[in-house]
Amino acid sequence: MYWSAMPKTKDYYEELGVSRAASQKEIQSAFRKLARTLHPDVNPGDKDAERRFKAISEANDVLSDPQKRKLYNRFGQDWQAAANAGVDPDQGPGPFGGRGGPRDRYRAADADTIEDLLGGFGGARGGFGDIFSSIFGSRGAAGEPTSLDYEGTIEVTLQECFRGTTRHVVMPDGKRLEVKVPAGVQDGTVLRVPGLRARVQIARDPLFERDGKDLRVPVLVPLATALLGGEVDVPTLRGTRVKLNVPRETQNGTRLRLRGLGLPDPKGGQAGDLYAEVKVRLPLPMDERTKRWAEGM
Fold first, then answer.
1. CA distance 171 to 152
2. If both were cysteines, with which of 2, 21, 35, 38 could 53 make a disulfide (CB 3.0 to 4.6 Å apart)?
3. What is the C-alpha separation between 41 and 186, in angstroms, rounded?
4. pLDDT (tens digit, 9 = 90+) per residue, 208-261?
């Protein structure tokens, strides 16, 4: 587990259009509303929408996490440096002047970067070594670690979970380790390489929901198609769209299964399914013909 100073952050509240006093529910609601209009699947080829979608996703990642939000509220654009240096938002300013605990995130940096982050706390290299000891585990009398394994969290997106990915981690001794994240890995899985135990955390996706190996995705279906039957396009985690046959008289909220389009099985078994959740779209504004038809029902 190693860290580096991160680039300055933006105003996350402004990105989501909420006040600093907004509740978690209000933050989630604002994000979902924006995500529905800015998602790349809704705006294919629109670079500005893609940029905005990434920005609101980053803002939501911080503000929807109570611990990250507390650090952001306290340190603003320097919240990541505070988190990386081990500040505990519930127990005071941590290594900057009080109690605190390490945050188990992987970042690439060298010792001088961390020294700068700590601002010379406790002296020069001697103080740095003491802080390193508290972060990476207790040391024996000779100053050697009593445990050979470092622990932390690797965060991946649902798309990366679908395809599988690789993370490179720089250890305190400068060694670079490659951690392979298998396709279809479950949230919370602990991956082990010599000297490292990495717990996988899968970030929430604004469009797809996971249920084991299965996936769910909302699909807008015109009223006429729901009543008379027809085809609609369904996005997949592969980045493609597939045709879905909607039977006649399909009710709002119906789940239609697309076999084998869910997440792969990390053990090589059968892949999960993709369930399209029908969201019937009313023809608004209604023309006179539709209005007369509705009035005659």
1. 11
2. 38
3. 25
4. 999 999 999 999 999 889 999 999 999 999 889 999 999 999 999 999 999 999
